[in-house]
Amino acid sequence: MIFPNARRILVAFLLSMLLFVTACQPQASSRFDQVQETSSQQKSGQAVANATQGSSFNPFFPAASRGYERVYTQEKKGFAEAKLKKDGKDLALMAISDTRSLPTAAAKFKNTTKQIVGYPAVEIGNTQTAVLVADRYQVKVLSRDASFTASDREALLKQFDYQGLAKLQ
């Protein structure tokens, strides 16, 4: 035998050709390709793009007072959130959101008869109370401790600056 490595070289060449030929073939479309194409063409995030910047909501939260502490925890386009703390304990979570980011959020206020400071309000389960301002901004207080009751949530909701919030439009 003149070329003892010829077999190895031939096998390596054939394997590389096999990989080259199979890699260059067009892939068969999967059942998800049409869905991906459709969703890519949609104007996603359009509602959030039109939403108010979350930092704009901060001045409308109640100020910290009488041993309570307000700690901002999240802020993004269309949403701002703060915790109400006392003695290091989370009592409530306060949030303001632009319902343009989530249009169905305002629907729950349509048939309510309850009002807080002249704005439509709803109880959501046993731990949440929400107010709709100017048919656009949802102000919500969520109890994070059993001692923080529905009447405490309502009292806290009365401290928000709704007139200022309504002018954001």
From TrEMBL:
Entry keyword set: Signal
Signal peptide annotation: 1-23
PROSITE patterns hit by this protein: PROKAR_LIPOPROTEIN
Protein name in UniProt: Uncharacterized protein
Organism: Gloeocapsopsis dulcis AAB1 = 1H9
